[in-house]
Amino acid sequence: MRRPNPSHWCGSGPPLAVLCALVGALSALAACEAPSSPPSDLVSKGREIFFNETFKGNGRTCGTCHPAQNNLALDPAFIATLPPTDPLFVAEFNPDLKKNFENPKLMRQFGLILENLDGFGDLENMFVMRGVPHVLAMRTSVNSNQGPRTGWSGDGAPGDGSLRSFATGAVIQHFTKTLNRVAGVDFRLPTEEELDAIEAFTLSLGRQQDLTLPLRLKGTVPKRGQEIFLDNRLGKCNLCHSNAGATANFGGGNIGNANFNTGVENLPDQPADLTGERNPPDDGFGRPGDGTFNTPPLVEAADTGPFFHNNAIETIEGAVAFYDGEAFNNSPAGRVLAAADPNQVGIELDGTQIVAIAAFLRVINALENIRQSLELLESSAEKDFARRKEARELLKRAVSETQDSIKVLDGGGLHPAAVAHLQKAKELAEKAACSFFRRHDLTQQAIDEQRNARAQLIEAS
Amino acid sequence: MLKRYLRLAIVIVLLGGALEASGQQATEMFIPIGQSPGLSGKGSLIGTLESVDPGKRMVTISSSSGAQTVGITDRTLIWLDRSQQKQPNQNGAINDLQKGRKVEVKLRKGEPKAVAEWIKVQVSP
User: Fold this and answer.
1) B86 shares contact with chain A (CB less than 8 Å)
2) What digits encode the pLDDT tens for the residues A332-342?
């Protein structure tokens, strides 16, 4: 998902002029618009904090690294759209944070953020460079039989290690004004109420439950991809990504989110290493680490690359292909899979099979985008004239989701008919966001186009 | 096949799945005594150092719930809480555990005796 530019939506020339005239004519009606009421429930309070609260730090908010307009994640393409004054780049303009706070080169080129997960005693040498994971579908992914797992290695939160406590650690690591990291001077710590609200908001994002595979997919290649994904003798994906989620099930019941050493750190030619910048190995969970990282959900994967904790791989096809490679098959996790296989094979896939699994992942991502778009469009349609500002905001988010679904399908050469419907849906939602009188009608048409697109991807249930 | 994967499940649980979820220690160091989220007042011990025995590597902490003796191991992290002086917190050592100082202790889970995972000790202005 890329940052939508509202100025592009409303076009230029006569339609814009007409709109401007209408704006003038209707300016008197502005007073009728309901004032933006203060957040009333925990989720909206959490949203407000997540995107606007700086905790008296360096200017960053949670949304700096988890921007709403980019699937709550960072990638180099999105970073390139930000102005140089964006607080993400604070290490470039705050002299106190110039050294040992971020690596601007690796941030801009690969979307990597600096973390001192093994302590702050040796800032020159003890750090890791990690990507920013999306925070969608957390309700389905954060729990394990051993307790909550947060961040890339499952140990991202101080205190009790819970998702609720995560923000406290993030403020200390990423929001500080200086490297002294003194609470009450360089930042303030989130209050108990704020932690409750941020947790509630985070848990509200994206899917609230896992899929139940297999889905009745249309399209030869994605369908085959699903079969391979679910085949415990071939793809073996479903063992650790049950129902394309973030939990493991080896046949004895779901064990929740789990940590594995899959050998990502042993990949050759990792992009960040190729730059010659300092990039110490990441030892994963614990201090010192044991080399394991936790399992991310896959439904949201195709539009939230780059992939893995170190953003080592750019495409979803490349991410699937990783499991066919030596780094994985020689890893502790790969060896365990091989030991359980009748032919002592870890994961061995051919090019067509890799692409098929990726096609499946692209389609389920697009289906999730459509689900979210429909939710946003329907919610927007319910808003009356007095709440048109909220309606427009929902429409913008629906446009972003639709752009995502177009991108993930188009990128895999999948379902062109669905893409055409999604293009129409996007245009209609953009028009709706700019329309004073036809918003409801255009939104309804966008809903219909989304449904048409979905019908191209999956059999009606 | 099922048996194989059940065996696999056991191996994986032994390899990584059984990792006990725990709070991140790195940023914990900068959280003042009594403010650790979800922990202070619930899962940690806050009180005053009543006695320190560096030889036996034991400290006794008196709190509102009484006195408790806690062991210190090589893995125990000791941090100096200097937040009251608006100074950065620092790594400390067993010598910094002095009678009368305020401390917060997180106990290591799964140990037969009370052993500290970390101790924050307040350094007076």
Assistant:
1) yes
2) 999 999 999 99
